[in-house]
Amino acid sequence: MKKISLLIPVYNEEESIDALYTALIPLLNNTHTGLNGKSYDWEVILVDDGSSDCSAEKIKELHNFDSRFRYVRLSRNFGKENALLAGFDRFTGDAMVIMDADLQHPVSAIPEMIAQWENGFEDIYGRRLSRGKESITRKLFTQIYYGLLNKSTNVDVLPNVGDFRLLDRKVVDAICRMRESQRYTKGLYCWVGFKKTGIDFQTSERVAGKTHMSPRRLINLALEGITSYTTAPLRVATVLGFIISLLSICYMIYIVCKTLVYGEPIQGFPTIICTILILGGCQLIALGIIGEYIGKIYNESKQRPPYIVSEESPADVNNDIKIKP
Ligand code: UDP
Ligand code: MG
Predict the structure, then answer these.
(1) Which of 102, 163, 307 for mutating ligand 1's site (highest number of atoms within 8 Å of CB)?
(2) Residues lining ligand 1, CB < 6 A?
(3) How far is residue 248 CA from its own chain's centroid?
(4) Does the N-terminal or the C-terminal CB of the chain have fewer CB atoms within 10 Å?
(5) Which run of H or of E encompasses 246?
(6) Alpha-helical runs (H) found in 12-157
(7) Cα angle vertex 207, ends 87, 213, to 5°?
(8) pLDDT digits (tens, 9 = 90+) for 284-324
(9) Distance from first CA to last CA of the chain, Å, rounded?
(10) Residue 310 and residue 72: Cα distance in Å, rounded?
């Protein structure tokens, strides 16, 4: 029988876990009507990303109660991207479904993903039909961001497509080989390729709690996405440098000619100040962009592990876990 793993990152979700369990049971028992009588071996990998509430204890209880639920507890909050990698590393099935613990990703869409997987697709992503109750600024920001990201790369990152997806074993293996510690998994899914298709789903409201994606985290993730996915900003800095130099040379020629023809009493203070300010600003922006990339090189050169496990369910210890060096 084919084995499907569900990977669920959990960060301060103690109020959602009971509802999550109830929602998953029909699927795990192969009694979900969407499965059309098909049966699979199921396992759920819950990765506790350093929660400060009782999520870790609840997950452990769940494992003791139902051994199909495995748990991995990270030593602190490493962020969703790294928590996902911890789950990928522990994957032993034929396909993996990634979903959020807050049930914003409907369980009812999973059988449809499995059907597409059985049809031969290797990466079936969920496409949000609406973005739910998100602020207008977040929606607008997302739209502009994906526009910019896709213009600067030749591998498209789809908007309204997140981590809710089914991955074939081959895709998970490929993603596991990418060990960068500053991760942008959404970009990695696209980068590895494989046969993709999408299914539509309606985002539900969180069952409990509130989002952890503060504007600061979202901005960091967005910058991470651009800088880990493309070096286009460096090129923009170069192009901008060329344009400004060209304009400066034209202006210089104009000033020299004007001085030769009319002479030059000391004048032009505002022009000098404006030029210095504009050039200074451009130089700082370019330095900032270069700095972002140097920062990334610095962090990656330390070769620290992307996450540290403090505890995991005993079944994992005996299992053949393929943690890559
Ligand atoms: N999450 C995580 N680590 C974090 C932040 C979030 O593992 O540092 C998990 C969280 O428990 C949830 C999923 O990632 O299962 C999505 O988080 P959230 O619902 O806060 O994000 P949103 O749906 O608002 O984008
Ligand atoms: Mg959510």
Answers:
(1) 102
(2) 9-11, 13, 49, 77, 79-80, 83, 100-102, 104, 211-213
(3) 41
(4) C
(5) helix 232-262
(6) 17-28, 55-65, 80-89, 110-118, 136-151
(7) 60
(8) 888 888 888 888 888 888 888 999 999 888 754 444 444 44
(9) 30
(10) 8
